[in-house]
Design goal:
CATH architecture of chain A: Up-down Bundle
Oligomer: homotetramer
Structural class of chain A: mainly alpha
Strand content of chain A: under 5%
CATH class of chain A: Mainly Alpha
CATH superfamily of chain A: Metal-sensitive repressor, helix protomer
Number of helices of chain A: 3
Shape of chain A: elongated
Number of strands of chain A: 0
Distance between the termini of chain A: 24 Å
Largest interface: A-B, 43 and 43 residues
Helix content of chain A: over 70%
CATH topology of chain A: Methane Monooxygenase Hydroxylase, Chain G, domain 1
């Protein structure tokens, strides 16, 4: 992975802490709307991590794809990723 | 919360397991594109949980909002939730 | 429709004007990234219209669902809409 | 633009036809939920066009970025596009 590993790990641990919090909210039978908001906050955080990972990938692996074959492989991976992101 | 608590807890625990897996992938310096795909899979799962929670809320709390005041409160909460979902 | 009809029409006409602009960009063989940005701007505008329409629906039709049967019908429509929005 | 121009134009014209249909629904005061569904269908179509445009960009412009300078420029454009897509 090309992204800043310490930063990505830290964000993922925050997301895991949020998930633990949501599980507790569910067990304590908290209000649906509050649980929904926390779920969306965690999704937004994972989305931010994904942005970090993909930006670093572009700036690292794609930038360094010197041969046409290398670039073709990276491009096809990005097309597949985009198909999922923009589904 | 009006949703099936056992089901929601089970899905959230699956998401937490996936997050632990992603943290391990980051520590093992796995390929960016593979990490990105796992992140999107976990986001999709949390999105599914959110759907469960909000559907149950609609079928429970909103359905049971007998007075106009009750309905107004529920409606304003849903408008605020929609603003976040459709941002 | 419960939303402000003049406002919704005006936003939709703006979106149609943007689409005409994008069609022209395609015919003039403009740069992909610029076309992509305009497409996303139009999607964001339609998303805003959808928010207007659904908020007004909640504040109008759902608020006025006095009988349990009425509410059940509205609730099931909203559950179906949410399933599409959160897919 | 690297994408198939005839295909992209055809899809955009379909989207414009859908928008005209939605404007007519608004003028005819049709049901909010039906208008919302049509809005989401048009957004999904524009999203598909965006996917076409960006995939063709990757397979065209990025694939042909032979020099490091070229690649850097393309990569920074893609990072900016991703930031919007994953916002």
């Amino acid at each position: 992975m090309m992204a800043d590993r310490a930063k990505v790990s830290r964000l993922l641990k925050t997301a895991r802490g949020q998930l633990d919090g949501i599980l507790k909210m569910v067990e304590e039978d908290r209000y649906c709307i509050d649980i929904s908001q926390q779920l969306m906050a965690t999704e937004a955080l994972l989305n931010r991590v994904n942005r970090e990972v993909l930006s670093a990938h572009l700036r690292g692996c794609v930038q360094q794809a010197v041969t046409a074959e290398d670039r073709e492989e990276k491009v096809e991976e990005l097309v597949a990723a985009l198909d999922k992101i923009l589904k």
